[in-house]
Amino acid sequence: MSKDYLNLLGLAIRARKCTLGEESIIRDIQKKNAKLVLIASDTGPHTRKKLTDKCKYYNIPYRTVHDRDTLSKAIGKSGRVAIALLDQGFASKITSLLDESIRG
User: Fold this and answer.
1) pLDDT in tens, 86-102
2) What is the overall mean pLDDT for the chain?
3) How far apart are CA 74 and CA 60, in angstroms?
4) Which of 40, 63, 65, 103 is found 20 to 30 A from 84 (Cα to Cα)?
């Protein structure tokens, strides 16, 4: 998996177009404010199931990405296992970068 999306993720954080924290992310999924949810590959099974189930129910796209250390380093905050993107532009570009790295 390519790490190209991490730079864009850092930009989205600085632009305040992201939500951090499990409860805040779930709230944004339920309000349909979240356009894409990124979940770290080493997230615990309980948290992973909770987030993926909410995303599926509310039809919010989600992707499993690098481990929590890589994700946390990209946004400059420690111990983050999930991030919700609130901007459709950032979400679309990050989705295309992630899909491209899987295909390529």
Assistant:
1) 999 999 999 999 888 77
2) 92
3) 22
4) 103
